[in-house]
Each structure stands twice: as structure tokens, then as C-alpha cells.
User: Fold these one by one.
Assistant:
Number 1:
Amino acid sequence: MEERPRVLPAGDQAILIEFGAEINPRINRQVHEFTRKANQNKIPGIGELVPAYGTVLVYYDPFSLSFSRVNSWIQKVFSAGTSASEFSQTVKEIPVLYGGPYGPDISFVAEHNRISVEEVVQLHTSQTYLVYVVGFSPGFTAMGIVPPKIQVPRLANPRIKVAPGSVGIGGLQTGIYAVESPGGWQLIGRTPLTLFNLNNHPPSFFQPGDYARFYAINEEEYLEISKSESRNPK
């Protein structure tokens, strides 16, 4: 029988549920299973649930609920189970212009792994990636796991500014910066899609549990899609 996750106090207004300590699709699926089921079965006093790679942070009102009461509710959610049919099977296709000024670190990724730039693109576009988390900066999407031959360490000195749409690799993961922000991932390309818009609900293009697949485009296609996105913001 599988061991239940650990339930730990996180201050006086939150509880941390630990499913595991590694980047693992099975563990992350358990995180999303619990989060969906918990949101469907909230009791008064339970606030926001924040899923991450292997944990869920549950906020609650300490004036209406005790730690033991929240823990009891969590155990009931565990016991309820979750149907696999509830999970997103959405695969979102992402156009990317690789290399050049749009992906200034792609040559390093190739050299680090002793392969060609063309192989980096081929391998990066060959996978369907699970979206583990959306966060860090608005809409930032971390997904994985990238093929071993293109895995690469993050920058020793992060950039102060990374352009919106930049696609990077950091260790086992690939990700997209949805808005301009600092960042330390190795940048290999950029998508012209708008991935964060406060006028949308939810504002982020990606949600945890989605799947993503990248495909390569040329600069002409990039500019064409960019114009379309600016005319018709999603």
C-alpha cells in the first residue's frame, strides 16, 4: 500500500502536504489529483491551494479552523480518490524561433552536450512535456523532462532581463518566460505567443497539468504570428 504524503504545519495559517522531493511525473500527478479534489470539496475556512512540483500548500483561516480540523479534512480528501478522467489531456502547440538573438544560449547547450545546434532543436521539439508548475513570475511555465542530451546547468549569473516568450532549459526542465523578468535558464529560442494576459481568466495560457509540444518556425513566421497576436490578444 502506497504511503500517504506528509502533512506539516507551515506557520499558523497554512499546512504543507509533501508528496515527494523530486521532479517526477507520478508525484506531480498526485499533487494535481489532490488539488483538484480538494478544490471540489472545500469546507468553510479553507483558502487558496498552491500546488508545486511535489507539494501542496493549503491556506486556512486559523480563527475558524484548527490544524487538526484541517488535517482531518485533508485525510478525507485523500480517501476520496480521483478519477483519471478528470485530468487535462490538453497538448498545447508552441511555435518557437530557435537560436540567434532569440536563443542566445543554444550554442552553449550544443557545445556542453557535444551535439549540433540542429540536434538541440530536433531533440527539444521531439518531446511532449508535462507542465509541472506555473509561477516564479507571472505565467512562467516550468515543464519537463527534457532529453538527457540537451540537459544543461543554469547560468552562473542570471540575466537581469529576459524577454517575454523566451524558451529556456535549466537542468531537467524546459520553460517559458511569459513576461519580462530576471532569469537564469539557458535561452534557446522564443515564442511569439502571448502567454500571460490579465484580461483572460485564468490569465496564464498554461495551467499545471497541461502538456506542451514545441515546433520550430522561421523569422518570417515569427513576425507574422507576433502581428496576429498584437491585433487579436487572447
Number 2:
Amino acid sequence: MKKRMKKLEILAVGVALFLSGTQLGIAADGKEIFESTCSACHKRGMLGAPKLGDKDRWTELAKTGKDALVESAFNGKGRMPAQSRTREEIMAAVEFMLKAAE
């Protein structure tokens, strides 16, 4: 009985750590999110998307604030469709793109 309870406790802790790590890991990795979701347009500047590293465009966009940029991606704006990522994941990607333009 004690062995079974110990195994269940270990399993529960493992699942909790996995789930919390997954949530934190995804949201924290802006480069990975950029590569998997944003790069199709933002790497080359397709359809008028601000190109990664374009200091002038990103400096101008940064004036609207990170939250406004996140909402634009989350809801869609212009030719960019609404994104299926969480706001936290989009924020990580936005921060990555802003940093790349510094």
C-alpha cells in the first residue's frame, strides 16, 4: 500500500511539473514561437509584415506598446490573420522581434 501511494505521489508531482513547465517554457521561448508561427511572413516581410530586424519599422511599432502589438496578433490586423497562440506566447514572440530590431 505504501509503495503504491509513493508511486502515485511521484506521478502526481511529475505531471504537475510537466504541465507547469510546458506552460512556462512555451511562453518564455519567443524565438521558437517566432520560428514556428511568425517567421513565414516576418522573416521576409511578406504581405507588408514588418521584417525581423527592421529597426525603423519595429521602433515605430513599439511606440504603440507591447500590449497593443499582442492584441493585433491575437485578433488579427490588416492581412495578418488572428493567431491561435495564447497572449503569453504572442508576447514572447513580440518581445523577441522587438529585441531583434535593437
Number 3:
Amino acid sequence: MIIHLEKRTDPFISELLRDYRNLTDVVLRTRDEPTNGIFIAEGHSVISRAVEAGFEFRSVLCEEKWLASVAPWTKLDTPILVGSKEMLEEVAGFNVHRGALAAMLRHELPTPETLLARADRLVLLEGLVNHTNVGAIVRSATAFGFDALLIDQHCADPLYRRAIRTSMGTIFSLPWSRLPDWPSSSQLLHDAGLAIVALTPDVSALKISEIQLPPRFALVLGTEGDGLRSGTSAIADLLVRIPMKDGIDSLNVAAAAAVAMYALTLGTLDHNA
């Protein structure tokens, strides 16, 4: 169902456009989107991955030139809102240079217990509030063959638009869930047979290249500013660090995650794939 935005004063169209307004307002979107059961996918490649992963459209907002590529993904009754680049920018509040946005329906999250039962290696994020870092870590986790993602009660939403964009849509293929009351809920990981491997810049921690890695583990990453919570360090089975030159104590958390994931999976990846 193609709708041209020249008619955007129509109440039905105005209601559809609500999903796309204030997209740069992080506080508003992270509060509104999970509650309403939607997320915003941005750009052709990201929308394509969402479709491949089985997510359904609520609507699409795009320029005329993107209509031919977007329309085959949608059902006949899916509203496709079409307008000029200027109209899209007016609605979204930023330059939509990737040509298309899609409001898509979230899937129900699996329980943490379900993920833990199926995962041999997963990444757990505590208190990461930067969506770009979350998206970058998701992309690395997928690239290095991690099975799942757990986030704590304070972590940024992996389905926020910027996180999705940074992950290049890989969040759609990485099972994830939110773990309540971390680190008090750490017993769930031990009950599932996963060792807790926590990354820290603490010089007393073991070098990541020298540890004896358990067959099943969760890699825990803390915030950039404060690092791991003291409670997390206390319950970790292994505290590990990335050795660095004197005077440099840490990397950006997304960069550190990529280095650690590669080190922990070295020798287990098919490099000829």
C-alpha cells in the first residue's frame, strides 16, 4: 500500500509517521520502542537482514527511488510512505542518506535460561549505555562465532537504530536476552555450566593469551568509565586482561571486545570460510 506524503495531514498517515519522529532523541526512543514492540531499521542492507531473519514490517518510509527495492519485501497491505529526501529529513530529524527506514515488529525475547542452555560461548554486557559500542560488539560477536548475547538491566537496547546500524544488522542473527539483577543472577550461568570470564585492565589479572579456557564460557565486559562492577569481579571464574604497552591501560570497550573475542576463539574458526 503506497502512500505519498503529500497527504500526510491525514490522521491515519500522521499516526504512521509517529514511529519515525524524533529518531535522534535517545531517551524517547529507548523508552518508547521496546514498550510499543517496534524497532527502526535503517538502510537497504539492514532492512534486508531483518527480513531474512523473519521480522515483519509495521510500515516503511522511503524515497521514491528506493520503492522498487523495498516493495517486494512487504505485504500488499504494508503501508509504504513515500516522500522526498527533504520530507524524510523533516520527519526523522536527520539526513536519511541510506534512503529508507522501516518500523518493524520485535520478536519476543527468549529467556536467559533458554540462551544459556544452548550457548557454548556468549558475551555478557554490563552497563554499556553507548549504542554504538553495543552494536560494534554485536558485530564482533557474530564474526567470531559467539552463540548468544546477554545484557544486564542497565545496558543499552541492541535494537536501537544506531546499535542496529553499527552492528550491520547482525543483531538479527545473534540470539539475545536481558538478564535481570546482574551480577546477583550470576548463578544462572554457573547452573548452566558456563564459566564467567571477565575482561579487565587490572594488571593482576591473567594475560588472555595464557589462560586455560573452559569449554563453555561467558565473556563479561564492563563499562568504559568504571569497568567491571566489584560484584562481577568477585564472582568471575577468570579475570583476564589484554597486555598493553606501559602507559596505556585500556582500549575502547568495543575494540577490547574484538581483541578478546579473537584471542578466545583463535584456532576454532574456519579461516577459509
